[in-house]
Amino acid sequence: MPNKKNDTILLTQDTFDKYKQEYLNLVQVQRPAIQLELKEARAQGDLSENAEYDAARDKQALIENKILELEAILDKAQIIDQSEVNRDKKAGIGAKVTYLNLSNNKEYVVTIMGSHDSNPFENKISNESPIAKAIMEAEVGEVTEVDVAVKYQIKILNIEY
């Protein structure tokens, strides 16, 4: 059920399942629990000086905002089917890519992921990032330019799935 291409959020099945589980927990467990807390706090009387009521309202707002955020993600989600990824010559989502940064002569290894699956600490980069866009336009052995404020070139050394 993807929307306009720019609105689509690419997710792995694992990430989609994680978001779905979090959503269900919020709707089925946390939302009813906070409603009960609010009911109990209201029963204590004067709401103007009821710290428990204020805390429960704040918690409810956080839960409702998170539910809305997850609904938007799940509604726009398109699950990446690894069997449909073009594995001919260019990198796609799920590809592990080794490249050489020609400005500092250092080798890097990254995995291209959807934006919600990216994690820079694990060298998983978003397909929407400038470096991923440059990588996905080139084949092994080609030099391509990374379109950032100070442009630089990289050479694709290896692509594997």
Précis, in short:
InterPro entries: GreA/GreB_C_sf, Tscrpt_elong_fac_GreA, Tscrpt_elong_fac_GreA/B, Tscrpt_elong_fac_GreA/B_C, Tscrpt_elong_fac_GreA/B_fam, Tscrpt_elong_fac_GreA/B_N, Tscrpt_elong_fac_GreA/B_N_sf. It contains three helices and seven strands.
Helix content: 25-40%
Summarize the main sheet.
5 strands, mixed
Enumerate the strands of the largest sheet in spatial order, edge to edge or round the barrel: 5-4-3-7-6
Under the CATH scheme, the architecture of the largest domain is: Orthogonal Bundle
Shape field: elongated
Amino- and carboxy-terminal Cα gap:
26 Å
- Rounded average pLDDT: 89
Relative strand content: 15-25%
Q: Low-confidence parts lasting 5 or more residues at pLDDT below 50?
A: none
- The secondary structure category is alpha/beta
Per CATH, the class of the largest domain reads Mainly Alpha
**CATH fold descriptor of the largest domain:** Helix Hairpins
The count of helical stretches stands at 3
The tally of strands reads: 7
From the alpha-carbon coordinates, what is the Rg to the nearest angstrom?
A: 22 Å
Number of domains: 2
Organism: Mycoplasmopsis columbinasalis
GO molecular function: DNA binding; RNA polymerase binding; translation elongation factor activity
Pfam family, one: GreA_GreB
Domain Transcription elongation factor GreA/GreB N-terminal: 9-79
